[in-house]
Amino acid sequence: MDNYILQNTRGASLTVSCQGARILSWKSERGEELLFTSSKAVFDYTRPVQGGIAICFPQFRKQGTLEQYGFAREKIWCYEKDPPLLAGDFNEKECIDLLLKPTPENDLTKIWPHRDVRVEGLEFRDYLDNLLQNKRFTEQGNALTFESEVDRVYIETNNVTVFDHHHQTRKTFTIRKEGLPDIVVWNPWKEKSRVIEDFGDEEYNHMVCVDAASLENPITLEPGQEWTGRLELSLRNFC
After folding, report:
1. Is Isomerase one of the keywords UniProt gives this record (predicted)?
2. Which option is the CATH number for 114-239: 3.90.1150.10, 3.20.20.140, 2.70.98.10, 3.40.309.10?
3. Of 115, 138, 142, 141, which Cα lies nearest the Cα of 127?
4. Distance between CA atoms of residues 181 and 79, nearest Å
5. What percent of the chain shows pLDDT beyond 70?
6. What's the whole-model pTM score?
């Protein structure tokens, strides 16, 4: 598998795979891994890697006419040596551009969608519960905690914060986003972990998926139109 490693001057690093443009690793300046990837993940291009940060596009799960989670995470992306200039401040920041290009075999125009962890910033937001046939509810708690399987889409959210006190070093992750109004929260818990082939039986204790998306109101582009989505993760450690 072709991977690219970005590293800043302070030693923090990011590993990006050409398979689905997935971020496989994010390490702090101390070399501490901050992203979950299953110990049973498969890296042979036969299936999406279980873990990291994926691109689910143009649909999430089966909420569309394409394959589950869309085609983007299944395809091989290519490195762009001379990317177009992007808006924003990229001074002293490492960047890489991976593009998904049409090929004779891949015509994109035709397929064009009990833990010490809590998530805050979702209170009083409506959500669709995938475990209850996507019925709509309103979050009443001040924070979402995990004591069983969770598979929800929170609608029209602001930025959210994930507090992880599971490790000796307490961590707080802040998720800021633009163009992606919804938030997906998923943890398979005990029973489902044991039936997911490329997921360890006890690994639900070491991860939670918190992803930005646009599901309630899918984005439709006419020829020539553009759309930009932005997702920013930041970390704060509490020793």
Report:
1. yes
2. 2.70.98.10
3. 138
4. 29
5. 85
6. 0.68
